Each structure stands twice: as structure tokens, then as C-alpha cells.
């Protein structure tokens, strides 16, 4: 069907490990004060990264620097080559034949060829795909460095799962990417000098965690950091005219949402959840809470997703209908939100808009790890968070299907399971498009959340580096091309 191709002040900072599934944190000393000590070191400051959250932290960074997939998703959801040169669907959609690039090695020097791919890919796909892996019958190595992914039935999600990160089995994080974890280090990455596309110019990446974006930004102003992982929206305008810092913004394939616990009494009724959606002006949310740095949500899929073909079922903003849709008893619920974050701004704006239609939302602060813990035990009514959402249809499946491997908060509804399963089983492109339309409609008829806005992220990078950016992608995806700038500047020592 498819064709080829971010408690308050306390400890100053913590360091984070680059494990993808089991991340650990530890104490770190003072920041680097002399860039000349290592001209090819990139120091990154991050804020409030969680040690356990499946929706934040190095799960968003490591795949960009350490791990790669057979393919990567374009902004329209079509898969693009990465470790694979090409692929084709055979046997009436019951097989995917993948042609691998030649000369690829893991960071430990061992080859990643068809034989190794056939050996490790089943476990990688099983972990990435969750219950959808049942569609996969096996993986076989073929001639001329090809592999065949055999399917029990046609499975559009199997094609989209080609983006799963390739990681060598074992306790360490060993991939094929341009940077690598060396030894037992929990604070830095080193260049993979045997990278099949050539070694990166940057030979070392260090990452330090701070209690807030404000603290990390202060360190960058003191010239102790080269990059701010995420710029707070309050600082964006003031940074625009900086002579020493470049800003790179892009719309992420993540959405800011207020998710509902659909088993909680105040939010069990689909009619109540529909009314809450009608009460929210998403354009106003972007303007007031995100200062314009966001894109109002229209559904769970990227508006440019190929199967939508420009056809969107938009959530309505119609406060006049809310009163008629709400029960006579006042609707009251509590919403969890991480402190000192964009989520806090979003919660306050949603609270204001709901109050205008007589709904009482209490905002309760909780650390990100606490939100995840309470989500897993369903000890919440609502929460402001951020979830992966596109550009493929499989990515939202991971979050919203009841058996999705990233569904840490028991999100979704039975109707959503039916809609996703219909997409998964679509035998042809026409049925796939129809199933995608149905999914969009279910998010309106039986909403599991208020989808607020697509996330816009900004990275601040010192002009000490010549940075190449790729349109539509995170600037971090091109780190292997970055070079120390030949233009020298006077370092700030605030």
C-alpha cells in the first residue's frame, strides 16, 4: 500500500543515562566554562527530564543520535529509506521484501546485514508493534542483502513499523547511528568513527539535566552550554535577535492533549466528553497558552497524512451547544499537570474556557513520574500531557489502542479499538482511507481526550556551530553534519 521512503529549584542538575527503556539519573558537577577545551564537543542542556516516563526524556533524543530504523516517516506518513534502500509488497500484501544498504555496521563493529537483520528484527518488531506483531509470521534473509518480512495477513501497520529503531540485543545501547554510548558513561555520547555514511565532525555530545528551562537557559547565557534542548515559550521572542544563538523551530509529531480517564465517574459519559470538546477554542489555546507556538489540533493524525487526502473532520468550537449537552448536575473534575511547564499554561487556559460554560476543573500539580504512575493505576480523572501522534496511523495506535505498547494511562475507548483494528486489517488503499476517516470521527463522537494543539518545539543552538537543518524535521536529525564554526566570538561570562 505504501511506497519506498521538553521541583522547582533544588538540586542544580542531574545527569541522565542514554538507556531507552531503563533510564537512570545521577548528580552532576558544574558546567563547562571553556569551549576551547574541546572545540568539537556539543553540550546540551535539558530540563525536567523524567527517569521513567515513556513520553519524555531520552526516548526522544537517543533515536536521533544513536539508533536508526529501516525507514523513517515523511511528513505525509509515507515511509522513506534509511537503513533500507527500498522495499516492495509481494504475495498480495502478505510479504514485504526489503533491500538493505550495504556496508552498515553496529557501533561495536559487527555487521548489520540481511542475516543479522533476520535474526534480531522479530524481537524488535515484537517490542515496537505490541499486539500487531501477531500479523508477522517471520523474517527471512534472502539473496543480495535482502530480507523478507512474511505476514499472516495484509497489514498496513507492518509497513509503517519499518521505522522501529534497530538496536543490537543485549544490555547496552548499541545501534548503527552516528553517535554511540561508550563504556559505562551515563552523561555523554561519542562519535561513531566507523559510521557507514562517514564520521560526524562533532566527536562528543554531553547532556545535563536541569530543574527548569529557565535554569538551563541561564547556563547557556553563561556560555556553559552549546544547545538548549527546548526553549521555553517565554524566552522565544527575546532570543530571536540574539547575535550568538540561532533558533530552530519545527512542528513535532506530538500533540498537547487533556486526556480523560473514561472510567472516572465525572467523565464516563461520551456526551459529557463531547460537550467538553465543544467548549474549547483551540485557536485561543494556541494564542493564549502557547503564545502562537503551536498548531490547533484537528484530530489524531497529521493534516498532511496521505490517507486523509485533504479531508478533515474537525472538532467544533460551539459553546452554545455545551449547555444543552451537559447534565443538569454540575460537572467537576481534577486535572493533573506537571509544574513549571507549558502543560501548566495549557491547563490554566483550558480551565478558564471550561469555567465560561459552567464546568469546574481543579488543577492539581504532580511530577511527571507521578502522573505516569497514577495513569498506570487509573488514579486520575484527567491530565494534561503530550503524546506521539502521527505522521503515520500506527503511531497514534501505540498510544490510544487499549493494547498499545505506549498506552501508559489506559487511554482510549472500545470504539477507538474497533476503529484502529479496522485500519490494521484494511486489505487495500480504498478501505484504508475509509477506516482512517472513521477513526477521525470516533475521536469526535466518543472522545478519549481534548486534542489541543500540535507541539511546536524550538532548539537554541550556539552560533559556534555551523548547523544544517532539514525542512520539516527536528534539527537534531542532522547533528552528524554539524561543524564547529570558523567564526569566532567573544564568550559571555555572565
Q: Report Rg.
A: 23 Å
Largest sheet: 13 strands, mixed
Query: Architecture of one domain, according to CATH?
Result: Roll
Measured as a percent range, the helix fraction is: 10-25%
As for the CATH topology of one domain, it is: Dipeptide-binding Protein, domain 3
Taking the alpha carbons of the first and last residues, their distance comes to 56 Å
What structural class is derived from the secondary structure elements? alpha+beta
Backbone shape: globular
Low-pLDDT segments: 1-38, 54-59, 488-494
Which percent band covers the strand fraction? Answer: 15-25%
Number of helices: 13
- CATH class division of one domain: Alpha Beta
Overall pLDDT score: 85
Descriptive labels:
Dipeptide-binding Protein, domain 1; 13 helices; disordered N terminus; four-stranded antiparallel sheet; Dipeptide-binding Protein, domain 3; disordered C terminus; 24% strand; 13-stranded mixed sheet; globular; 494 residues; alpha+beta
Amino acid at each position: 500500500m505504501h511506497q519506498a521512503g521538553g521541583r522547582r529549584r533544588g538540586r542544580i542538575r542531574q545527569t541522565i543515562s542514554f538507556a531507552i527503556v531503563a533510564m537512570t539519573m545521577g548528580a552532576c558537577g558544574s558546567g563547562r566554562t571553556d569551549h576551547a577545551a574541546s572545540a568539537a564537543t556539543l553540550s546540551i542542556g535539558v530540563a525536567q527530564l523524567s527517569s521513567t516516563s515513556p513520553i519524555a526524556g531520552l526516548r526522544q533524543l537517543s533515536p536521533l543520535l544513536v539508533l536508526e530504523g529501516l525507514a523513517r516517516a515523511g511528513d505525509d506518513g509515507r515511509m522513506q529509506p534509511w537503513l533500507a534502500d527500498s522495499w516492495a509488497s509481494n504475495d498480495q500484501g502478505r510479504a514485504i521484501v526489503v533491500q538493505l544498504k550495504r556496508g552498515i555496521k553496529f557501533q561495536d563493529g559487527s555487521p548489520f546485514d540481511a542475516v543479522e537483520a533476520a535474526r534480531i528484527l522479530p524481537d524488535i518488531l515484537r517490542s515496537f508493534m505490541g499486539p500487531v506483531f501477531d500479523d508477522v509470521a517471520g523474517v527471512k534473509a534472502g539473496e543480495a542483502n535482502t530480507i523478507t518480512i512474511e505476514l499472516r495477513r495484509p497489514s498496513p501497520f507492518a509497513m509503517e513499523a519499518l521505522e522501529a529503531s534497530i538496536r543490537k540485543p543485549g544490555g547496552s545501547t548499541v545501534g548503527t547511528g552516528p553517535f554511540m554510548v561508550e563504556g559505562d558513561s551515563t552523561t555523554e555520547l561519542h562519535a561513531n568513527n566507523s559510521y557507514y555514511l562517514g564520521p560526524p565532525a562533532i566527536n562528543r555530545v554531553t547532556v545535563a539535566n536541569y530543574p527548569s528551562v529557565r535554569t538551563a537557559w541561564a547556563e547557556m547565557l553563561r556560555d556553559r552550554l552549546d544547545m538548549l534542548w527546548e526553549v521555553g515559550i517565554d524566552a522565544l521572542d527575546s532570543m530571536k535577535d540574539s547575535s550568538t544563538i540561532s533558533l530552530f523551530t519545527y512542528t513535532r509529531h506530538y500533540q498537547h492533549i487533556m486526556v480523560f480517564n473514561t472510567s472516572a465517574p465525572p467523565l464516563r459519559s461520551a456526551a459529557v466528553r463531547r460537550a467538553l470538546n465543544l467548549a474549547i477554542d483551540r485557536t485561543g489555546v494556541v494564542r493564549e497558552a502557547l503564545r502562537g507556538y503551536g498548531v490547533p489540533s484537528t484530530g489524531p493524525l497529521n493534516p498532511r497524512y496521505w490517507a486523509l487526502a485533504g479531508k478533515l473532520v474537525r472538532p467544533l468550537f460551539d459553546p452554545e451547544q455545551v449547555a444543552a449537552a451537559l447534565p443538569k448536575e454540575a460537572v467537576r473534575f481534577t486535572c493533573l499537570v506537571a509544574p513549571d511547564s507549558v502543560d501548566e499554561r495549557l491547563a490554566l487556559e483550558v480551565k478558564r474556557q471550561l469555567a465560561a460554560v459552567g464546568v469546574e476543573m481543579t488543577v492539581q500539580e504532580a511530577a511527571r513520574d507521578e502522573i505516569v504512575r497514577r495513569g498506570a493505576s487509573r488514579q486520575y480523572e484527567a491530565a494534561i500531557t503530550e503524546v506521539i501522534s502521527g505522521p503515520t496511523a500506527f503511531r497514534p495506535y501505540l498510544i490510544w489502542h487499549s493494547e498499545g505498547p505506549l498506552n501508559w494511562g489506559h487511554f482510549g475507548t472500545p470504539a477507538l479499538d474497533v476503529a484502529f483494528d479496522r485500519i490494521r486489517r484494511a486489505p487495500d488503499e480504498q478501505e484504508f482511507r475509509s477506516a482512517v476517516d472513521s477513526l477521525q470521527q470516533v475521536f469526535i463522537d466518543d472522545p478519549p481526550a481534548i486534542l489541543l494543539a500540535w507541539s511546536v518545539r524550538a532548539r537554541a543552538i550556539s552560533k559556534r556551530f555551523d548547523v544544517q537543518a532539514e525542512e520539516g524535521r527536528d534539527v537534531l536529525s542532522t547533528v552528524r553534519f554539524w561543524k564547529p564554526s570558523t567564526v569566532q566570538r567573544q564568550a559571555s561570562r555572565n
